[in-house]
Design brief:
about 325 residues; binds 7-O-phosphono-alpha-L-galacto-hept-2-ulopyranose; alpha+beta; D-Maltodextrin-Binding Protein, domain 2
Length: about 325
């Protein structure tokens, strides 16, 4: 079932208000307080909506997160049944340290259409829509993926840019990319934005890859769907606890490689509001006693817009 497009404005308001709630904690060097401000605000406002919502990607499991935990029911209960993925503050370090890239993010689908992802890592690959779908694959070698992209874009390997989280676990991939003379965009956090950099040539990122948060992978997939980009993800269940959680959520094939349309089915709405300024959207600003926010939203295939909103400073 398609989502009512009236929901877009509701959800743009939700991420905008969460971003504003977080704004006063930018640069306080306290990521817990910043995250709590965004999370509390998002939860309060989601509960006011006339929806019968359920968190499928949230701040953790019931035993570890009192707010927006996986399975939590949201909304008045009167309205469409929807699944909700939230990351009230994506890039907690960015907000705490007053660095670019902090976002407040939500994705929704009709009930049952959004993957229930456990809190675990995911190996991800995203490329732009100009690359044929079979030219890249999580199971190809890094060399093969990069060479295919270069071929299709008619570029030299040294003109290709790969975006990846700067983590010790990526040492080998980063070395391989360097050997190929590929340019790197090494990000310290925020791999929802990282994945979305393949959506437009202006960001100069040809491939996003590597291991990051599973929930962030699902959120990025919902936006990449509207951009008609490719996304693949494979969860990494390492500990016994991870495996237990995965099985509890109904995941039996622990090595499965998920295609975008297995992660997000049908219609979805994605909203990302800037908290600090970033590549995708501007950060929250306070001008003449009004907060101004910028939100990137996507809906269905191909509806992609940025919207600026003003909220009184009450
Ligand atoms: C990423 C990134 C997040 O966690 O998913 C990353 O998007 C993965 O975890 O902003 P590690 O930090 O353990 O590598 C964040 O950086 C923080 O949630």
């Amino acid at each position: 079932m398609d989502l009512d497009k009236k929901l877009i404005d509701n959800f743009v308001n939700i991420t905008s208000k969460a971003a504003i709630a977080c704004h006063k904690y930018i640069g306080k060097n306290d990521k817990i307080i910043a995250d709590k401000a965004a999370t509390d605000n998002m939860r309060d406002n989601l509960n006011k909506l006339n929806i019968d919502g359920k968190v499928v990607i949230g701040e953790g499991e019931l035993d570890e997160a009192p707010m927006l935990y996986i399975g939590e029911k949201l909304g008045t209960g009167i309205g469409p049944k929807i699944d909700i993925a939230v990351d009230p503050l994506e890039g907690t370090n960015f907000a705490a340290k007053n660095l670019p890239g902090a976002l407040s993010v939500i994705a929704i689908t009709s009930e049952g259409n959004l993957f229930h992802a456990p809190e675990t890592y995911m190996n991800k690959l995203a490329v732009g829509k100009d690359i044929p779908k079979d030219a890249t694959d999580l199971d190809f070698t890094i060399e093969k993926n990069i060479k295919n992209i270069a071929d299709f874009k008619n570029k030299n390997l040294s003109d290709i840019t790969a975006c990846i989280l700067d983590r010790p676990r990526h040492k080998k991939i980063i070395e391989d990319l360097k050997k190929m003379k590929v340019n790197l965009k090494l990000i310290s956090d925020g791999d929802v934005s990282g994945a979305l950099l393949v959506t437009d040539d202006k960001y100069k990122v040809d491939i996003f890859l590597g291991i990051g948060g599973g929930p962030e992978g699902v959120l990025a997939a919902s936006a990449l769907d509207a951009y008609e980009c490719k996304f693949q993800g494979r969860f990494l269940f390492k500990t016994k606890e991870d495996i237990f959680r995965a099985k509890k959520m109904g995941i039996n094939d622990l090595d499965k490689k998920y295609e975008l349309n297995e992660i997000v089915k049908g219609d979805s709405i994605f909203c990302a509001t800037g908290i600090t300024r970033g590549d995708l959207v501007k950060g929250v600003t306070l001008e003449n006693n009004k907060y101004i926010t910028e939100t990137l939203f996507t809906h269905k295939k191909s509806i992609i817009k940025k919207v600026k909103k003003e909220f009184p400073n009450t």
